[in-house]
Write a structure and sequence with these properties.
alpha+beta, elongated
Length: about 100
């Protein structure tokens, strides 16, 4: 009988844990310009179905910030927030990030 423990299975099944992030399938990010309303950001996330955030990029395509699912739920849900406000009022301006040459682990 084969070892069915987590360790036993892990030794037999290939894993992505040591794979570089650049080999993991990903969708193009949803981007919006500064000044986009929160309502339009939420619509962009819903319409594209690509994830849980929008990247705010300037005319030079440099990242200005990210509006994440956490920003949306923590601040919008249950709050009295004007969805007509610009994305800059809620976005994270210095997001943590990973490089594509880093491993999944």
């Amino acid at each position: 009988m084969s070892d069915l423990s987590e360790r036993g299975v892990a030794t037999r099944v290939p894993t992505l844990i040591d794979a570089r992030l650049k080999v993991v399938s990903r969708n193009a990010p949803v981007t919006v310009p500064p000044g986009t309303t929160l309502a339009d950001c939420i619509r962009a996330i819903q319409q594209t179905g690509t994830g849980d955030s929008v990247f705010v990029t300037g005319p030079d395509r440099r990242l200005a910030g990210v509006l994440t699912e956490r920003d949306i739920f923590a601040r919008l849900v249950g709050g009295d927030v004007d969805l007509g406000r610009p994305v800059e009022t809620l976005m994270t301006t210095q997001p943590q990030h990973l490089h594509l040459d880093e491993t999944v682990q």
